[in-house]
Amino acid sequence: MQINIKNFPAVTLVELLVVLTIMGIVAALTVPALKNHSQKTEYAKLAQKGYIQLEQAIDAAVVKTGQEPDDWTRPDVASFLMRDYLGEHFVGARNCIGNYSQNNACFKGYRKFKSSSKSSPTVRAMMLADGIVIAGDGQGGGARFIIDVNGPSEPNMEGVDVFIFSFGKYDVDCNTKSSSGQWKLCPRDHAQNLVEDNWTITYW
Q1: What is the CA radius of gyration of the chain?
Q2: pLDDT of residue 6
Q3: In angstroms, rounded to a whole number, what is the distance separating the alpha carbons of residues 149 and 107?
Q4: Looking at CB atoms within 10 Å, which of 1, 132, 146, 155 has the fewest?
């Protein structure tokens, strides 16, 4: 059987250009969204990993000292906890604990979420083998740990690649400090959204 090519309509150059233009528009709309989703997934996964590493370091310090944090020296200051109890339990990590400052090789501070206002707390920090930085704030009154999932690299923004957790004796919901509560890491600011959404970033 012979096919008569003349019976088939030809695709014109204009039609081909229209198709290519539509494909380009679709790609322009979907590629950034896919990239954004991939980055959110990666940052959330790294934040969870940093949190688990911090929890494990606290548990290991309790076992080694044979004491609950109540009996540690200044458990309300995260930088002291990093220096005196936790630092040695981050296996294979880069130690920036000796460099107690606002800006060291491990930690460069951070900006508030969607803001240009920069916060530069004085910290002691450890950089894990995969680049996650865990920093202990030097302020008293409540131990505050900062997890920066990609270390000194930008954007260094709270809620994007930086997540904050407080450590202390809190009630079951992490809302109120309580002398009869349990020692725990409690998410703060956008870290709370992250944890409540089952370690998924949904707000940007």
Answers
A1: 24
A2: 58
A3: 11
A4: 1
Residue tagged 């934040």 (tokens): 47
Would you say 191 and 80 are in contact if contact means Cβ atoms under 8 Å apart? no
Q: What is the DSSP letter of 199?
A: S
* Cβ-based neighbours of 53, under 8 Å, separated by 6 or more: 90, 128, 132, 134
Which are the contacts of 58, defined by CB distance < 8 A and separation ≥ 6?
Answer: 69, 85, 86, 167, 183, 185
Q: Identify the H or E element spanning 134.
A: strand 133-137
| Residue 133 bridge partners (DSSP) | 127, 148
Taking 60 as the threshold, does the pLDDT of residue 93 lie above it?
Answer: yes
Q: Of 19-23, 67-71, 145-149, which range is least confident?
A: 19-23
Phi, psi of 111 (to 5 degrees): -105, 155
**Domain limits of the chain?**
13-196
Per-residue pLDDT band at 8 (split at 50, 70, 90): low
Composition of the chain by helix, strand, coil, percent to 5: 40, 20, 40
Note the pLDDT tens digit of each residue in 121-175.
Answer: 999 999 999 999 999 999 877 899 999 999 999 999 999 999 999 999 999 899 8
